[in-house]
Design goal:
The complex is a heterodimer of chains A (118) and B (113). Chain A has 118 residues and is mainly beta. Chain A has no helices and 12 strands. In chain A, strands 2, 5, 6, 10, 11 and 12 form a 6-stranded mixed sheet that branches. In chain A, strands 3-9-8-7 form a 4-stranded antiparallel sheet, with no helix packed on it. Chain A is globular and about 40 Å long. Chain A binds chain B through residues 4, 33, 35, 37, 42-47, 50, 52, 91, 93, 97-98, 100-111, and chain B through 30-31, 33, 35, 40-45, 47-48, 50, 55-56, 58, 88, 90, 92, 94-107.
Chain lengths: 118, 113
């Protein structure tokens, strides 16, 4: 079974600084997808960024970027120029493609609580 | 364009009762997944529905069942409620095919007394 591990229960960063959240995963599959989701106190899970395992290039979305190390099974999230609105729980998630199409169930880590200090 | 909507927002039940949670997917989406998120934990996958059939299931007992209707909306049913079923229940919808991200609703907070 696939597992996702987030070793940092909580991280704190000064506003405008850069922070990196860690994620490792365990799988025997070669084709899969990785995601970072953000969950503010409003509870809705919001997709931040995603990475296809077959792509060597790291994904980037504005201030958010990932460092994907397939051999090490590592998928960290870097947030640049941190803003107060970035404060939330961040979850790393994994899924494999489903042969019949559509989106498989996601396997989530336990999350990292990100605190932004003004 | 309405996103994923879930009802009710909050629910309080007692042990042994049964509960039904509802989810309307984002417009155009045909696949619905359900997750259980205990306090302080990441969501755990319960099951996924596509074309009105359960397509994939996580490690949850048969007390958890579901249904998908022709309009793609879905229900999650939990029988014989236990204290450990207290959690936030999240619904996510997506398009079928390819690498389509799942869009989540705000969840239903279920409390068991």
């Amino acid at each position: 079974a696939q597992t996702v591990t987030q070793s940092q229960p909580e991280m704190s960063v000064q506003e405008a600084e850069t922070v990196t959240l860690s994620c490792t995963y365990d799988t025997s599959e070669s084709d899969y997808y990785l995601f970072w989701y953000k969950q503010p106190p409003s509870r809705q899970m919001i997709l931040v960024i995603r990475q296809e395992a077959y792509k060597q290039q790291n994904a980037t979305e504005n201030r958010f970027s990932v460092n994907f190390q397939k051999a090490a099974k590592s998928f960290s999230l870097k947030i640049s120029d941190s803003q107060l609105g970035d404060a939330a729980m961040y979850f790393c998630a994994y899924r494999t493609p489903y042969s019949g199409g559509g989106a498989d169930g996601l396997t989530f880590g336990k999350g990292t609580h990100l605190i932004i200090q003004p | 364009d309405a996103g994923v909507t879930q009802s009710p927002t909050h629910l309080i039940k007692t042990r042994g009762q049964q509960v039904t949670l509802r989810c309307s997917p984002k417009s155009g989406h045909d696949t619905v997944s359900w997750y259980q998120q205990a306090l302080g934990q990441g969501p755990q996958f319960i099951f996924q529905y596509y074309e009105e059939e359960e397509r994939q299931r996580g490690n949850f007992p048969d007390r958890f069942s579901g249904h998908q209707f022709p309009n793609y909306s879905s229900e999650l049913n939990v029988n014989a409620l236990l204290l450990g079923d207290s959690a936030l229940y999240l619904c996510a919808s997506s398009l079928a095919g390819g690498n389509q991200p799942q869009h989540f609703g705000d969840g239903t907070r279920l409390s068991i007394l």
